[in-house]
Input
Amino acid sequence: MYGMVNKAVEDMVCMHHGERAWEQIKTKAGVDVEVFMSNEGYPDEITYRLVAAACDVLELPADTVLEGFGEHWVLHTAQEGYGGLMQAAGKSLPEFLKNLPNFHSRVSMIYPKLEPPRFQCSDITAESLSLHYHTHRPGLTSFVIGLLHGLGKMFKVPVKVLLAESKAKGADHDVFNVQWTASRKP
Ligand code: HEM
Output
């Protein structure tokens, strides 16, 4: 994955737990990289090792770390670093979600070797939809749940996310049922 992902993990840990915790996490993960370069590729394994070490050092379950990382990604990494891309993708949560299937193709213009996940929407109503998440990477379900909660906070809309179908439990791919409150016209 591009270095910006590992940098974002570093940023989240330093923001909430301080630089000492980050140094401990890197040592525990056996990662000897001083500075991650945003636009360079790193093996996925490095990101997985950093997340596993963060769980150990911070004494938190993986789901909690990954959900926190998803929220941090939207509210800090994406909004602060790629505000234009985020704004162009929608003025409301449902609009943003419906544009999600095309979102990473715009990111690929900046990062041409991107191996992004694939999203699809179905069962769309005024206050809910099913979000289908396809990826070759294992174990990132809670990251997506955190991303969706982050988007809810970004649009200041209460959001409920339920895992309706789980790849870890044998389904073809993860399906999230996402529910929000439609804004009422005054
Ligand atoms: C401007 C904002 C964003 C940027 C720059 C961005 C960029 C990236 C990058 C660089 C990766 C690593 C993949 C690779 O390097 O090959 C990634 C992965 C991922 N992105 Fe985004 N992304 C953004 C927003 C989002 C949003 C809004 C969502 C969903 C709500 C999302 C969902 C994911 C997921 C789930 C992965 C994990 C990889 C996988 O599932 O295979 N991203 N993204």
Summary: Helices lie at 3-17, 19-29, 44-58, 62-81, 83-88, 93-110, 141-154. The first helix runs from residue 3 to 17.
